[in-house]
Amino acid sequence: MLNSATIRNHVNIVGQSSNTAPVLIMAHGFGSDQTAWRYLIEAFAPKYRIVLFDHVGSGKSDFNAYSPHRYKSLHSFTHDFLEICHELNLQQVTLIAHSVSCMVGLLAASLEPNRFKQLFFISASPCYLNDRDYIGGFEQADLDRIYAAMSSNYYAWASGFAPLVMGNADHPELAVEFAKSLLAMRPDISQAIARIIFQSDHRADLHKLATPTTIIQPKHDVAVPVAVGQYLAKHIPHSNLILTDTDGHLPHLSSPDIVISAIANYLQPLMLE
């Protein structure tokens, strides 16, 4: 199918080949792609069927499928995500999501709760802007400076943004990898998606989520303060918060063993053969 979500979003399935194996879906964050899950894939592939994809505008997705009219909110990415689930007939799946994909997953699980068994949110935020007693981490002026830098010189912005967000200055190769995935995006798409993410506010949607959710919050994340993880745990029913002693916004790349352990400890038991 020309308009197939599995083609448009460059879906790959790895791990267990049996259709009866429990399913993990891994959904990447902004500026990243499905290759960022390689350490988690290695850990969970022996027992799980793992579904990977790239959001439109990222990785090896079909960039021609992008339009500012279609992708004007996180709901558009939610529609893509659910379309993948429908085409693959995925049921009772566990979602492991990073950054923006956490809110995409939240919206999807709120719309189709029976499709999801369990959610894991890594470095999630429902709102990046500070608002009265809510600490999101950014003022509007901060975000405006980001947009201006992206517009002025996208290459320079990505080269500076990557090490700031990645952290772990003693491993500069991680920032280089993240910068490369940012630069693989079309600048116009990257800027548009950044605005959607940073200007979104899904705090009012948190209470709608009924799926058991584990929030994995780094203690040192320049993009998402610890207060945000605590806010999520307070407002999402059936949730628990794990504060990890990790640095940076992409702990599944910089501290994979810690993230893998956190997920493994809270994964619901495998179904009996």
UniProtKB/TrEMBL annotation:
Organism superkingdom: Bacteria
AB hydrolase-1 domain location: 22-255
Keywords assigned: Hydrolase
InterPro entries, per database record: AB_hydrolase_1 (IPR000073), AB_hydrolase_fold (IPR029058)
Keyword hit for Hydrolase: yes
Pfam families membership: Abhydrolase_1
GO terms for MF: hydrolase activity
Family: Belongs to the AB hydrolase superfamily.
This protein's name: Alpha/beta hydrolase
